[in-house]
Design a protein that fits this description.
By secondary structure, the protein is an alpha+beta fold. The chain has helices at residues 8-11, 32-43, 90-103, 133-137, 153-160, 179-191, 195-204, 218-223, 253-264, 269-274, 342-356; strands at residues 51-58, 61-68, 84-85, 125-126, 129-130, 227-229, 234-235, 250-251, 279-280, 286-287, 292-296, 299-308, 311-318, 323-329, 331-332. A hairpin with a 2-residue loop joins strand 1 and strand 2.
Length: 358
């Protein structure tokens, strides 16, 4: 199941240089809203893309934007209530919860992960070197990208015995959708509460993110946007059979502004902790509590990409500028030699808006 989804590993992290020496003359003296519309309209010039939603927090001003149509040829622009699958952006919630657990004294970053696991796993080490919690939140634990089995939790634990750790923990970045599910389980053991309930209790509820959920009721399902591939064929929605540490959260633009404001408030202990930098990867970005940490025009940005069947999104936090932006589209396709994939185009959209708004 997971093996057919997330294109996120690498794509969610590689920083593309899209800056230009000259400002786009067509947007000089335009308001922030006009700038957003300008770049969103450019984004929709690709006929494989039919809509884009944008959540923007700009120095106290909260704005949401929606362009195009939810379903091809239906002229139905997404409203604020539209739910999107956030895919791997869910990992930032996992990382933030780990930061809180560290501050609460529930876990230590230096703990051997096997301390919390339900079975003995002598294979989860490398030449006697243990794998720590810090290793699994920075994708340096040596785990494979996808678990050997993911159809249910029992199969996951059974399959984990087959894992061969590929490198000395803490030394090499290898993006993994196996490790964050282990992380979610460790959080459950540390607090005695299910992972999804922990996210609800400590992140969603305090920030009044009432429309952000793992499990959707019938009303929620009616708000969930349909995803499409590059041929505009409907795609399946992701069905999570594990804990949800890698993906599974659904949200809308209004709630994403609340999440952005939360991560722009460095006075919140777990937010400050979650922005720590632990490891420099080979891809010109650093990583901490699952956040990708990059320098964009001499400013630190905390960000993550999420990609899943029929949907792509980027979330970017710029504390120095007090700006955060989320861009979401219900289309998903890869690039070619002559054209960009939608993940590249969404990244470019977000960074163009950030660069030009005043």
């Amino acid at each position: 199941m997971i093996k057919n989804i997330l294109k996120t590993f690498l794509l969610g992290f590689v920083v593309f240089s899209i800056s230009s020496c000259n400002r786009n003359k067509s947007i000089e003296n335009k308001s922030p809203d006009e700038i957003v519309e300008h770049f969103a309209t450019e984004f929709l010039d690709d006929d494989r893309i039919h809509s884009v939603s944008i959540a923007l927090y700009n120095n106290g001003k909260e704005s949401t934007f929606h362009f195009g149509e939810k379903n091809p040829n239906n002229k139905n622009t997404p409203p604020d209530s539209t739910l999107y699958e956030l895919a791997s952006v869910t990992k930032t919630f996992t990382g933030t919860m780990v930061a809180k657990a560290v501050l609460d004294g529930k876990i230590s970053l230096d703990d051997d992960i096997r301390k919390y696991l339900p079975e003995e796993y002598p294979n989860l080490e490398y030449k006697g070197k243990i794998i720590t919690i810090k290793d699994i939140i920075t994708h340096t634990g040596g785990f494979p990208n996808f678990p050997p089995a993911d159809e249910n939790k029992k199969a996951f634990w059974r399959g984990l015995h087959q894992v061969e750790i590929s490198s000395k923990p803490g030394t090499e970045f290898h993006y993994s959708n196996t490790a964050p599910e282990i992380t979610a389980y460790i959080l459950e053991k540390a607090y005695g509460i299910s992972y999804q309930k922990l996210i609800e209790e400590y992140i969603l509820r305090p920030n009044e993110m009432t429309n952000t959920k793992f499990v959707l009721n019938e009303k929620d399902k009616s708000l969930l946007i349909q995803g499409y591939n590059g041929e505009k064929e409907p795609q399946e929605h992701f069905q999570n059979n594990l804990w949800g540490g890698i993906a599974g959260i659904h949200s809308n633009t209004r709630d994403l502004i609340k999440y952005i404001k939360y991560h722009l408030n460095d006075s919140i202990p777990e937010v400050q902790e979650s922005h720590k930098n632990f490891f420099s990867t080979q891809y010109d970005f650093d990583i901490g509590y699952h956040w990708n940490i990059v320098d964009i025009e001499n400013e630190v940005c905390y960000r993550h990409h999420g990609g899943i069947w029929g949907m792509q999104n980027w979330l970017m936090i710029f504390p120095k500028s007090n700006i955060g932006i989320a861009v979401l589209s219900n289309a998903s396709f890869e690039g070619t030699i002559v054209s960009q994939g939608i993940d590249d185009r969404l990244e470019e959209l977000a960074l163009n808006i950030k660069k030009e708004i005043r």
